[in-house]
Amino acid sequence: MTQAPAAVPNDAAPRRRRKEARPQELTAAALSLFVEKGFAATRLDEIAARAGVSKGTLYLYFDSKEALFKAVIAEGVVPAIEEGEAMLERHADDPVTLLREFLYGWWARIGNTELGGIPKLMISEARNFPEVAAYYHETVIHRGLKLIRTVVQRGVEQGVFRPVSTELIGNVFMAPLLHLALWRHSFGSCCARDLDAERFLATWFDLLMHGLGVRDAEPPQ
Amino acid sequence: MTQAPAAVPNDAAPRRRRKEARPQELTAAALSLFVEKGFAATRLDEIAARAGVSKGTLYLYFDSKEALFKAVIAEGVVPAIEEGEAMLERHADDPVTLLREFLYGWWARIGNTELGGIPKLMISEARNFPEVAAYYHETVIHRGLKLIRTVVQRGVEQGVFRPVSTELIGNVFMAPLLHLALWRHSFGSCCARDLDAERFLATWFDLLMHGLGVRDAEPPQ
Amino acid sequence: MTQAPAAVPNDAAPRRRRKEARPQELTAAALSLFVEKGFAATRLDEIAARAGVSKGTLYLYFDSKEALFKAVIAEGVVPAIEEGEAMLERHADDPVTLLREFLYGWWARIGNTELGGIPKLMISEARNFPEVAAYYHETVIHRGLKLIRTVVQRGVEQGVFRPVSTELIGNVFMAPLLHLALWRHSFGSCCARDLDAERFLATWFDLLMHGLGVRDAEPPQ
Amino acid sequence: MTQAPAAVPNDAAPRRRRKEARPQELTAAALSLFVEKGFAATRLDEIAARAGVSKGTLYLYFDSKEALFKAVIAEGVVPAIEEGEAMLERHADDPVTLLREFLYGWWARIGNTELGGIPKLMISEARNFPEVAAYYHETVIHRGLKLIRTVVQRGVEQGVFRPVSTELIGNVFMAPLLHLALWRHSFGSCCARDLDAERFLATWFDLLMHGLGVRDAEPPQ
DNA sequence: GATGAATGAGCGTTCATTCAT
DNA sequence: TATGAATGAACGCTCATTCAT
C-alpha cells in the first residue's frame, strides 16, 4: 500500500544484477504472493516489485501469468518428493523411524519453509488449472502417498503395526500435516494464533503410533 | 412498446415469482462458484446467471461482492455448529458415540453437502478477508474445536480414553475430515479420483479409536 | 491531444441515449479513425471518445478490436455494391450511360462520402486480416469488377465500343476512381492539395471514352 | 572464452562482416515488413531478426522507429525519380515512346521490385507522418507528375496526341500503375489472384493510347 | 423490485527505447 | 560496434459497480 511501487531502487546496485536475477527469484516472489492472496488476486506488479524488477521483466522469463504459476509449482515440487523416496531406502527396515522421519522431516523441510504454502495454493487453484493439478498429483501426491503406504504395509507385515486398512492410510497420515501448513497460511496468518507446531506434531505422532498399535514409540530427540 | 398495457392486467402477477428469489438462492449460487473458482476469479455475472437473475439484482441484496462473500460464509455457518453443540448434550456420557456422531455426522451434514466447500473457500480467502476469517474462527472453528476437546477430555476423565494431550486434539480430529472435503473440491473435481469417503472415514475412525486406546469401537450401522 | 478524454460530457443528455447509441455510431467512429490512422495505430479510447461513449461500451457490441474492424467493413460494404447491380438493369442497353453513371455515381455515393476511406483501409490491412480481405474481395471487388466488365462487353458487342480486351478492364476502370479516394485520405489530408475531383473525373471519363472509341460522349449535366 | 586470443590474430577480422551490415540492410528489412504489416504493426524485433542483427543495433543507425521509417522512404525514393527525368531528355521528341517507357519502365524498375511496396506504405502512413509524406510528395510525386504532364503536353503540341486536359493527366496515367502495385501488396498477397501484370499493362497502354488519339501505338517487343 | 446498458479503474501483456557490458 | 537484459508507458480487455427505466 504505502510502499513505493518499485520507484527508484537503491542506486547502489542499479542494474547490475541482470543475469543473477534468475527465474528463481521471480518464482519465489510469485509463490509467496500466490499463497498469500491467491493466484487471481495477485497482480504481476506486486510480484515484480517483490522481486525487485519491473513488470516487463517477468515476460523475459515467463510467457504469461499462468506459465509463471506452472513454474512456481514445478520448481517447488521437483526436489521435495525425491528426498522422501531416498529416505525410504535408508531406513528400509524400521517403519516407526520412517514414519517419524517423514512426519517431522516433512514439516522441517517443507511445511515449515516457503514450500509449505504450495498445498494451500494447489488446493485453491486445482480446479482452475487442472493441467497443473494433474502434474502435481502425479509428481507429488501420488508418489508421496505410495511412500507412506509402503511403509505402513511393511510395518504391518513385520508385525510392528497392528493390521490396518492401508489403502487410504497415506491420506490419513498426511491430513494433519497438511492441516498444519494450511492453517499457517490461512487463519494463522490473519486472525488466529498459529498452531503450536511442536505440540501438534507430537499429539499427532502419539495418536498415530497408538492407532497403529505401537505403544512405546518416542518422538525425536 | 408504445401500446397500451391492456394485455397485462395486473403487474403483480408476472413478478410474483421473484419473491421467492431469496438471498439464499444468491448465496447458494455464490458459494458453489466461489468454491469452484475462488472468490477473485468468480464474476458476478456468473453468480447472477446461475441464480437466474440479472447482475444488478445482486446489488439489491448485497452491497458489494465482498458483502456477498460475508453472507455466504455467515449463512453457511450459523446452523452447522449449533447442531453439534446440541448433540453434545444429548450424549453427554458417551464419548465414543459422540466422536462417532461428530465424525460421521459432520460428513453427512456438512462435508458431503454444498457446505463442504466452505473450508476450501475460507482457507483460500482467509488472508484476503481477515474480518470474515475472524468471524468464522470465532463462530465455527473455536466452538467446534472446543466441542471435540470437551468430548475427549470427558473420555479421558471417564477412563474410556487413554490419557492424551487434549489441547490440540480437536485440530487433529478435524484434519482428516477437512482433508476429505478439501480433496473433493480440488483434485477430486479436476484430475484425480475422488476419495472413497466411506473407507476413508472408517480408516480414520478406526485409527483414532485405537489411538485413544479404545479397541472395540464399532463404526456406525 | 488537447481535447479532454471524454471527461464530463455535456450534462444535457447524460446517459439518456443508451439504446440509440447503436453499433452504427461506433462503427462510424471506428471507420473514420481506422482510415485516418490505420487499424493498429487507432486506440479504442479514441474510438469510444469520438462516439461519445466509454471504452467499455465498445465491448457491449463487439467482442474485440478485430471484430469491430470486421463490422466496419461489412457494414460499409453491403449496400454499396447492390446499388450498382440494380443500376445495371435500369440502363441495360446504354453502355455509355452506364459507365458514366458508375463513374460519377461511385464518386458521389461512395468515394466522396465516409465510405471512401474503405479502400485505403482495406489496402492497408488486407494482409493483416486475410479473412476480412477475402470477404471484401468476394462481396465487393469481384462483383464490382464483373459489373464493369459486363457493361464493356455489351458495349463492344453492340458496336458502341471498339474491340478491347475486357478481362481486366474493370480494374483499369476503377483504378483512377480508387486513386482519387486514396489520395483524399492520404496526401490530400496531410500535405498536398486535394485533387480537384470534378476535373479529375472529367479527364478520366474523357480519356476512357476516347480509349473505348467513343468520340462524342458527354459528361453529365 | 577465457583462452588467449592467439587463435584470432587481429580483432578486425571477426567483425569485418559487420561492416557490410549497412543501414541499407536494415531499411530493406524494414521496408518489406512495413509494407507487409504496416508501420504500427511491425515490431522492431522483427525488423532486426529479418536483418540478422539484434534489436539494439537498430539504434546505432536510427534514432527511433520513426527515423527508420523516414530512412526507408528517403532511400527508396531518391534514385527512382532521377532515372525518369534522365529518360525525358533522351527521348525528348517521341512522346509515345516516352509514355511507353515510363509505363513499362516504372513497372520493371519500381512496381515489380521491392520498391513497389512504397506506394502502399506511403498511402497508409501519410496522415501519421505528414512530414515524410510532404517530403515524398515534393521529391517523388510532384516531379513524377510533372514529367508525365510534360510528355503529354509536348505530344499535344506536336499533334501526336489529340487535345486533352493535361492538368491531371499525370494522376490518371499513374493510377493504374499504382493500382497494380497496391493490389500486389494487399489482396494479391493474401486472398486473391495477383493481377496479370503483362495483360494489365497492355490493356492500360492500349486504352491510354487510343484515349490520347493514337491508333497505331504498339506495346514493347 | 428488477433490469441491463453504461461506466471507468485496473489488470495482463506488448514493445519502443535504454544502457551496461 | 554490437548485444540483449531491463524498463515502463501504453494498450486491449475485464468486470464490479451504478442508475435510468
Short description:
The structure is a homotetramer of 221-residue chains. With 221 residues, chain A is an all-alpha fold. Helices cover 63% and strands 0% of the residues of chain A.
Topology:
Four copies of one chain form a homotetramer.
Chain A: H1 23-37, H2 44-51, H3 55-61, H4 65-90, H5 95-111, H6 118-125, H7 130-157, H8 169-184, H9 197-211
Helix pairs in contact in A: 1-2, 1-4, 2-3, 4-5, 4-7, 5-7, 5-8, 7-8, 8-9
Chain A binds a DNA duplex (21 and 21 nucleotides) through residues 14-16, 18-19, 21, 43-45, 53-60, 64-65.
Q: What features would you describe in this structure?
A:
The structure is a homotetramer of 221-residue chains. Chain A is mainly α and 221 residues long. Chain A folds into two domains: 50 residues, Arc Repressor Mutant, subunit A; 136 residues, Tetracycline Repressor, domain 2, CATH 1.10.357. Chain A contains nine helices and no strands. In chain A, 39% of the residues are buried. Chains in contact: A-B, C-D. The interface between A and B is large, with 56 and 57 residues.
Notable traits:
9 helices; disordered N terminus; homotetramer; elongated; 221 residues; DNA-binding; mainly alpha; Arc Repressor Mutant, subunit A; Tetracycline Repressor, domain 2
Largest sheet: number of strands, sense, barrel closure of chain A = none
CATH architecture of the largest domain in chain A: Orthogonal Bundle
CATH topology of the largest domain in chain A: Tetracycline Repressor, domain 2
Q: How would you classify the quaternary structure?
A: homotetramer
The CATH class designation of the largest domain in chain A is Mainly Alpha
Radius of gyration of chain A: 20 Å
SSE run of chain A: HHHHHHHHH
State the shape of chain A: elongated
Number of domains as seen in the coordinates of chain A? 2
Structure summary, number of beta strands of chain A: 0
**Low-pLDDT segments, ≥5 res of chain A:** 1-17
Mean pLDDT of chain A: 89
Q: Report the sheet-strand fraction of chain A.
A: under 5%
Please report the two chains with the greatest interface, counting residues with C-beta closer than 8 angstroms to the partner's C-beta: A-B, 56 and 57 residues
Structural class call of chain A reads mainly alpha
Tell me the distance between the termini of chain A.
44 Å
Q: Helical content of chain A, roughly?
A: 55-70%
Q: Number of DSSP helices of chain A?
A: 9
